[in-house]
Design brief:
mainly alpha, Helix Hairpins, Monooxygenase
């Protein structure tokens, strides 16, 4: 499935999320089961399958990792943690240090330190997204396979950052709940 074609948007990493969401909503309204209740069984099944496709397309394009994966797949490149290049030793060491910092901050209940890890990681994730954006812009989504292959490590980087952001956010959630009580 081409999620970009399904939503009628450009096949690019830099999408207008508001416009894509608007298209998703329009298509969802058109395909809503109530609009096809009077139709035959095959029309209802078709509308339902298209509605599922539209929802899946929106789920893919709104997430930068899944959007990049879709672009790589559409260009004929295999993606996934097992098929991407091995991360650099530098990235692995940095992630290990950041995880240690997060674990220490959590064990001490040091919310400012957790927030600092989160902020650093969000900055790095933003830089990786920017690199993907620039790389896809230079290479085109399918024009230059070699150029796209050089972007694969950035996708892996973004995966590491996403997991660390999730862990740091999780560390903040219980604290936020206690502070609001």
């Amino acid at each position: 499935m081409d999620p970009f074609a399904t939503l009628g948007i450009d096949r690019t990493f830099d999408i207008d999320l508001a416009a894509a969401q608007k298209m998703h909503r329009q298509l969802s309204r058109m395909l809503h089961p109530d609009k096809h209740a009077a139709g035959g069984a095959s029309e209802r099944r078709y509308a339902l399958s298209k509605a599922i496709e539209v929802n899946e397309a929106w789920r893919l394009v709104r997430d930068p990792i899944r959007r990049a994966e879709a672009l790589f797949r559409l260009a004929g490149l295999s993606v996934g943690e097992s098929s991407e290049p091995t991360p650099t030793a530098e990235l692995l060491m940095d992630m290990m240090e950041q995880r240690e910092s997060l674990a220490e901050a959590r064990s001490r209940g040091d919310l400012p330190a957790v927030r600092a890890v989160l902020a650093r990681t969000l900055d790095r994730a933003s830089a990786a997204e920017k690199a993907l954006s620039e790389g896809f812009g230079r290479a085109g989504y399918e024009a230059n396979r070699e150029a796209l292959e050089t972007l694969l490590p950035r996708l892996g980087e973004l995966r590491f950052y996403r997991r660390l952001v999730d862990d740091a956010s999780e560390a903040l959630d219980p604290a936020l709940a206690r502070s609001e009580a």
